[in-house]
Specification:
Elements lengths: L1 H5 L6 H11 L2 E4 L2 E4 L2 H11 L2
Antiparallel strand pairs: 1-2
Length: 50
């Protein structure tokens, strides 16, 4: 999840999302990815607003 901490997207965004999906913090919902835990999503949203 360094993507949000650095405020830039990786060159291989699809690979980064797939890695996050396989390792657990993201899940697939149709064609979208979602955080599995609302607290994690809220934390990253708060950090991104700083």
């Amino acid at each position: 999840m360094l993507i949000l901490a650095r405020r830039r997207l990786p060159i291989r965004l699809g690979a980064a999302l797939e890695h996050s999906y396989r390792s657990g913090p993201l899940r697939r919902a149709g064609i979208a990815y979602q955080f599995r835990h609302l607290e994690l999503r809220d934390h990253f949203a708060h950090v991104a607003l700083r």
